[in-house]
Model the fold of this input.
Amino acid sequence: MNEEKVISLIKKDKWMMEILETANSLNLPDWWVCAGFVRSKIWDTLHGYSERTPIPDIDVIYFEPSCLDESEEKKLEEKLLSLKPNIPWSVKNEARMHLKSNMSPYSSSVDAISKFPETATALGVKLDNKGKVVLTAPWGLEDVINLEVKPTAYFRDDKEKMKLYGERVSKKKWESIWQRLRIHHN
Done:
């Protein structure tokens, strides 16, 4: 599997394309649907699952430094819910999320994705201005395709962040859903 195959899987998935089209309708700056939305599709496919595994939320991120008010994100979630009410939308402006994570400011949504805890989750997709599916994978696709859960360098190089990474992967219990995963703890 490679980037072209991942994009092809998404394009063939009517539900995923509807999610991307709905998120695109908001015309948000530097937007992506990220994390489990992409990762779970890859892992489900690699495990041969015919049914989609449940996703706790659909993460829509964007980057707008001129408006850091969290209430704007809630309004956007409400708008998405009005368009697709059965989807557990989660909208975050990455221009403010560094404050929540006690990090240096991000320069873009892709910069924020690169600072997600796991390489296999540091993924995003969106539609470009021509409706073409675009994939970002700041740490590459190798780990997600090889069913490996590893910390991003941003987490791996910091003892406190590694503690958070360990707690997160333990809590997620991904290996109970995707049995072939290998979880790395360093």
Notes: Residues 147 and 181 are 5 Å apart (CA to CA). The beta strands are 32-34, 58-62, 89-93, 124-127, 133-136, 148-149, 182-183. Residues 70-83 form the longest helix (14 residues).
